[in-house]
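Hi Q.,

Before the meeting this afternoon, I wanted you to have the zinc ion prediction in hand. No need to reply - just skim if you have a minute. The sequence and ligand are here:
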Amino acid sequence: MHLFCHEQPETLTVETAVSDSRPGKVTLAQSPFYPGGGGQLGDRGVVRWSGGVAKVMGFDVSAGKVWHLLDTPAEIAGPVEAVVDSDFRRTMRQLHTDTHILNALVFQSFDGALVTGVQMYEDGTARMDFDINGADNDRLRALESPINEVIRQDIAVSFAYVPMHEAHAERGLIRSRSVAPPPTADGKIRIVEIADLDRQACGGTHLASTGGSPPIRILKIDNKGRHNRRVRIGLAEKS
Ligand SMILES: [Zn+2]
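Predicted structure with the ligand bound:
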């Protein structure tokens, strides 16, 4: 599925029109909102129309349509202004990019260890679960410094669409079924690349370069079974 926020994650305000409407929910001709998925929370924000302002409380994606769930039972129509909460989006883009860096370094340092789950939070923290056989938690904790070195180097983050069969043939490109986005209608998958560090399938919003994130801290490592390690990170300025 192609989303406007994939191509233009910096454009947070869009003048657009209602394309379909029900009491309390609406689809838009063009939407700047990320509806959530792959561990990234759906955006917050508002929709303004001639009758007032409604808060966007969540999303319901069905049959290729993104329904914006509103905090009013009104059935809105006509031209609207859709506005994403910029602080919230910035936090998600930072955390999301940082989870890719963590993921890449774990993949390199622990023999292709895969992600089994990821979740980002509004408070500027995120957790990632890795399937690592007999992991040494001190070695995991020691990744904090190389992660911050990648942030400091301000490396470009780019994206491209590749055919599914190519994506499956490249080792490490699809790290986890839980984070891989659904393919587009023409059978392609979105690949996010941090130059010379990481390439993986992902459908979230990221920074344009790693330096857009503040440094991170590794806050906690939990053992979730013999193979599973849960690593919690936080943006240093918030945690
Ligand atoms: Zn991503």
